[in-house]
Description:
- It comes from Bradyrhizobium centrolobii.
- By secondary structure, the chain is an alpha/beta fold.
- The protein has a single domain, classed as Alpha/Beta hydrolase fold, catalytic domain (Rossmann fold), CATH 3.40.50.
- It is 45% helix and 18% strand.
- It has an 8-stranded mixed β-sheet, sandwiched between helices.
- The ligand O=C(O)CC1=CCC(=O)O1 binds next to α5.
Amino acid sequence: MPMIDADGCLINVSVEGRDGGPTLMLSNSLGCTLQMWEPQMKALTQVFRVIRYDRRGHGKSNVPPGPYSMERFGRDVLAILDDLNIEKVHWCGLSMGGMVGQWLGANAPERLGKIVLANTSCYYAEPTKWLERIQAVKEGGIAAVADAVLAGWLTADFREREPQITANMKSMLLASPVEGYLACCEALSTLDQRALLPKIKSPTLVIAGRHDMATPISAGELIRSNIPGASMTIIDAAHISNVEQPHAFTDAVVGFLTQR
Ligand SMILES: O=C(O)CC1=CCC(=O)O1
């Protein structure tokens, strides 16, 4: 896996899949590494060359001091594409990954083909929840918030039915570097990309989770209704819908990206 330099921050990048196929870039949720896409990889790599990466502050990427921002995350993606000599990619980002997709769609439209924005938001009406989370993590580490975060990521039914997958997701969250996690929470606490949405001209699919309390259906609907021509699909899942409903998620993404 290459480490790619984005303005002095080394980003862990993985490129797999069909040589010569269209390229799809996947972008993670807060507290997740590129491993979060494992349920999709078999199907996606049959159709696409797939790029995954660990956002700065996460996984095997560097953890430079904050503040971070959606613009910073977007510029990291452009540095990855420049380094790999890739002009244009389809985008699929979940949660923070969807926020980075919004920034790129509005600010670097020539680099994106189609865009999937899953379980995401363009702003938070109540940013205090991020300030409370920051305080809790500063006092008690990520362990202090882990169970509440997991309850938002996956429905109670799924957690009961799939204890091993749930435990793996919790381990991924707990392994996040605290400084990187906090810097991302700070970026979320000031998020407001509402003005960017009408500038997005790429064909866009919004995916929302029926049981997602972190970025509810109304947040997806706000995005859909402000991006010209965007459509929306609702999946029977909580926040990390690609893990909870892997087949429905993969089918929605492949169907949208391959339709003419
Ligand atoms: O981690 C969470 O609680 C949910 C979330 C919001 C933005 C994001 O990337 O994850």
